[in-house]
Design a protein that fits this description.
alpha/beta; TIM Barrel; five-stranded mixed sheet; four-stranded parallel sheet
Length: 398
Amino acid sequence: MKAIHDIAVLLSDGTLDPHLRAIAGKVADGQRITNDDALLLFEHGSLSFTGSLANYIREQKHGDNTYFNRNFHIEPTNICLYTCTFCSYSRLIKKREEGWEYTHDEIMDQIRKYDGQPVTEVHIVGGVLPQYDVAFYTKLFRAIKDHRPDLHIKALTPVEYHYIFKKDKLSYEDGMRLMLEAGLDSMPGGGAEIFDPEIRDQIAGGKCTGDQWLRIHEIWHELGRRSNATMLYGHIEEYRHRVDHLDKLRQLQDTTGGFQTFIPLKFRNENNQLSHLPETTAIEDLRNYAISRIYLDNFDHIKAYWPMIGRDMAQLSLSFGVDDIDGTIDDTTRIYSMAGAEEQNPALTTEQLVDLIRRVGRKPLERDTLYNVLHDYTDTVFESDNEYKGYVSLPVTN
């Protein structure tokens, strides 16, 4: 494979900085890099160097396999008690006329819109308000499962759970157990932002701390369930803060093994309090994906969230450690479009996602939320957006 050739070239390059060559040697030998190694990669690793290492790891883990799913988002409200400086999505209570607040019945109406469609996941996150409490969400999860038992519920971040459990005087342990019993299947990775307390206080003051975010995921993993993790980068943080964030995730994963996917989230600077900051370049974005793949040796998957970075960048990321580009979305999320993301109306058909993956020589696999492969679209010939022939149905595997 080209990835093996590329890393062999790096190891034999006499002009390469010896410290970088040592990191390449660790990657080739399957050894874990240190925090100092990661900081060196951020400060001195070129795009071609970090990309070659990350692509080697990606192909060792997954070959050309590239995953996506059929999903849609529900955002119960964008009205929020918190005032995160990076957020373009939320509205304060005093400006609630600028936002939305869906009732239980309105959310269920959105669920029913997908009756008869082959979606496998509903992703539920939103603002934090008192009426969206434990009772509201447990009732909602049960109603979704009663209506469509096979629909995977991936819902709420530790920011939301921390607030509603505190409001109802519940421990994290008891609260997460209630959510599990109500039908919650997995947790998304949002709300992590940056764990470093100094940076977190400046961009997301008042929300749950980094330690509390990690603890809620740890409890969920102890219940035998899976979750994702994110990092918001490209604002006021420094490289050392990114490394610290990755280190905390890797340590928890060593303990629980409960994380499935890591998703780097690019800060977008429209319509928020940090609009004076420039956004990171495409080169920096790709390096960040690559270094994340190199460092997080115990995470199976690295995801590029295509509605945030655009389709072209999502394709490029598949050569920089990424093996997952999320799902069809169906124009159901406004979190990043309101912040100036390239995709203002984020929706792709299955055919478009498959084509996006195949055009860069990768193998498109439709997965469910837990990465069981549902369909292999490598040789699929599509007749229209909704009709196709020749698809291969694979047995569900764990």
